[in-house]
Design brief:
Oligomer: single chain
Helix content: 10-25%
Radius of gyration: 17 Å
Structural class: alpha+beta
Amino acid sequence: MKWACLVAVTIVSAALAAPEIDDAKKDLDKMKGTWKAVSGEADGNPLPDEFLKAIQFKITGDKYTLKQGDDEEEGTMKLDAAKKPKSVDVTITKGRDKGKKQYGLYQVDADSLKFCFAPPEQERPKEFAAKAGSQNLVITLKRNLD
């Protein structure tokens, strides 16, 4: 009898988690492609236009490539669409912060993608804000149609 209850609980838990996994997959699908930065703020200061223009962000599946001038970073992303706000965990596999994790928030629609990240290995931001002293980065990207 205990075994049957355990099986039932496991099946119900899996069924309840499935929509959350589906939502994260749908968001990853929306993110596929190449993105250009259009605005951003870091630690309470706006990011310079020259810096933003040099950013290219490409997402394929759960992998990303971030280029900013001569610097390049690669990694993987894990989304949690069930959290409010939605969260993203990044594992950096290439670049200056290789081997580190970075925690953030995200919003995505058809042509716009917004992230808020804490510095690598720091606690996840609680809101989309890059207030002075927070060291957080907020960046808005638009789908590159070139």
